[in-house]
Amino acid sequence: MNINQVKLLKSLAKTLVPTRYRPAIAWNYFGLVSRLYRGDQVVCPCCNGHFRQFLPSSVNQRPNVVCPRCLSLERHRLLWLYLQERTNLFTQSLKMLHIAPELCFYHAFRKLPKLDYLPADLDSPLAAVSVDITDIPYNDNTFDVIICNHVLEHIDDDRKAMSELCRVLKPGGWAIVQSPLDTKRAHTVEDAAIVSPQARKAHYGHDDHRRIYGQDYKDRLEAAGFSVRIDEYVRELGDDVIQKYRLTKNEYIYLCEK
Ligand SMILES: [Zn+2]
After folding, report:
1. Which among 38, 66, 149, 239 counts the fewest CB atoms within 10 Å?
2. Which pTM value belongs to this model?
3. pLDDT tens digits, residue range 212-233?
4. Residue 176's beta-bridge partner residues?
5. What CA–CA distance (Å, rounded) separates 129 from 168?
């Protein structure tokens, strides 16, 4: 399947399929596609699929990126390995809040017998509850674990969102809070006057982003109350592992503890 065919299928699906049915249909559709891609060149740890290659990314046309079964990307596969090797997620009874649940994690997390799993979003069909991340409707110190990936760059008041994540996390709990970063920039670039999709695309590279985070991303998370560790876990992996799972070497994990 080439990139244009992937784009066409996505476009058709958006036109024809009601939102609430899309995750289940996508899951079953890609189950079929994954059989065509079966092989032994690459492995997806999220779904334990073995394939001759991954699908191309339709966003920036990178080849060999998307898991044909669970749709994981490089960053999802890295995070799954990290969760397995560096956290207590798979061994202890924990209550997790998953903001903007990704399909590849959603199915895997639901299968974990000890995990009390709460997928949450404003409008995702995968969400069990509707949650505004700037006003999370749960008491202080409710969750042992929070996963929030590639959300904050879309939020106007991201500092409030970070504070809310920290508020509902239990003392001793941990959160993974990932956002796209430009690590060459010392400071985050944002301007409240930039509001049109065209202007956002021009300034931030995406028409629905509110900013480009720089090296001060960690400072923002710490200002919200977290103790943040930037874990360069990927640098400890050998090239054979990087190739096997198709990871990128510049994705660091922001582990936020309270
Ligand atoms: Zn997968």
Report:
1. 239
2. 0.86
3. 999 999 999 999 999 999 999 9
4. 147, 255
5. 15
